[in-house]
Amino acid sequence: MGAERDETPPRTPTGNAPSSESDIEVSSPSNDLEDERLAKELSLKEAAAHDLSHRPKRRRFHESYNFNMKCPTPGCNSLGHLTGRHERHFSISGCPLYHNLSADECKVHAPSTRDKQAEERTLSHRQDENRHSTRNQAPTERQLRYREKVTELRRKRNSGLNKEQKEKYMEHRQSHGTSREPLLENITSDYDLELFRKAQARASEDLEKLRLAGQVSEGSNMIKTIVFGRYELDTWYHSPYPEEYARLGRLYMCEFCLKYMKSQTILRRHMAKCVWKHPPGDEIYRKGNISVFEVDGKKNKIYCQNLCLLAKLFLDHKTLYYDVEPFLFYVMTEADNTGCHLVGYFSKEKNSFLNYNVSCILTMPQYMRQGYGKMLIDFSYLLSKVEEKVGSPERPLSDLGLISYRSYWKEVLLRYLNNFQGKEISIKEISQETAVNPVDIVSTLQSLQMLKYWKGKHLVLKRQDLIDDWKAKETKRGNSKSIDPTALKWTPPKGT
């Protein structure tokens, strides 16, 4: 037998149920005043029932989408979304066709993805709570089992592509060029491919939220690519270039003076008469084909402003663009027979009350993962040693910056401990020797599980296994990308 239905009449905004027909008929016909009152009340309630102004306004479909915009992917009708949660898209990041999928496939995959993401968020919250409530930083049993599972999944993947797969991939690339994502199956393990797909979907969802919130507009003034020397670089973030340049989507830059232009023709004419072959300022370091120039933001204002605008295309947290006068810029270049090409740079305040030795640091994308980032960090600490100061980078660091600094601090500490022969060690001594801030040293020791509290004392454990791993990597890597302190010709500027 089914459950009894609730026959209670719907309530009006005043909270009362409209009177039924039988209620009115029971009224005494002799009482005219009572009949008039009931009729009036009934008419008011019926009018209120038809008045929908008190209800929350529903968002219409066309209010959240601009139908004048279209997805830039050739052949795409802008329907569907990579996450499966939206009816339309206007960017490559959310385009199913670009990712070699259909809108229906994205919708089918969406429910399972949402469930997994909810579980992952719950698990991460629990881990955060446990992390703050326990002193032990060792991995849990669950984390160890997960790591073993991932290792096993990666071990099972195919060693490479067979001939048919290679032909299929080449045919896909020749047919679609850069208008479609390359085929990614069998290139890596299924686990890593799924991680990559999750990251793609999450990024497109974040962009969709920003667009609906009005923080990113369709056809936004965001530069998609820049032509920089012999490279064409995809940008990562928005940079506040003038609107007439930003709306073009692509900028052409002189890699020596950093002047930005609207077209290839203007760039070609500029390069024919540009006399710059290296950054302005003083060359304070040279070893082989690597040089570092010190550029004063007050003396070379336009160059430094252009450098900051360029850096913002690849940095999320950067806020300095035009007020460059209080800063010094240290620009690293790689020289060949055409000139000194920009590798990366870092800036620092002329007078930092908190002893920050880096305000902003960037390695150009074409030089990433080649050791140049660590060279820039090492050079900043070399300047701190010459100044006889202890330095630390200004926060917040970007994701890539944090990874680079943690790797550098780990390397510095393991090198120091490998050469240390005494029995008692002091954090202060390590700091004075390496110019690394004691807070950064302690955090690195904790992450390496080399700092323990025992019988009322903090002990530094010399883990020989970590030192041996570091020595093996150093031997394999060699010293091709390192800073030579003897090649520095520099005295600290006055007032710093």
Automatic annotation (TrEMBL):
The chemistry this enzyme catalyses reads:
L-lysyl-[protein] + acetyl-CoA = N(6)-acetyl-L-lysyl-[protein] + CoA + H(+)
Q: MYST-type HAT domain: which residues?
A: 218-492
Enzyme class of the recorded protein, top EC level: transferase
The organism's superkingdom is given as Eukaryota
Q: Where is the composition biased (Low complexity)?
A: 18-30
Q: Name one GO biological process term.
A: regulation of transcription by RNA polymerase II
Start-end of Basic and acidic residues biased regions: 109-132, 142-153, 163-179
Q: What is its main location?
A: nucleus
The record's listing under InterPro entries reads: Acyl_CoA_acyltransferase, HAT_MYST-type, MYST_HAT, WH-like_DNA-bd_sf, Zf-MYST, Znf_C2H2C, Znf_C2H2C_sf
Q: Where is the active site?
A: E394
Positions of the UniProt region annotated as Disordered:
1-37, 109-179, 475-496
Annotated compartments: Nucleus
One GO cellular component term noted in the UniProt record for this chain: chromosome, centromeric region
Record-level Gene Ontology MF annotations: chromatin binding; histone H3K14 acetyltransferase activity; histone H4 acetyltransferase activity; transcription coregulator activity; zinc ion binding
**This protein's UniProt keywords:** Acetylation, Acyltransferase, Chromatin regulator, Metal-binding, Nucleus, Transcription, Transcription regulation, Transferase, Zinc, Zinc-finger
Q: What is its EC number?
A: 2.3.1.48
Family statement? Belongs to the MYST (SAS/MOZ) family.
Its name, as the record gives it, is Histone acetyltransferase
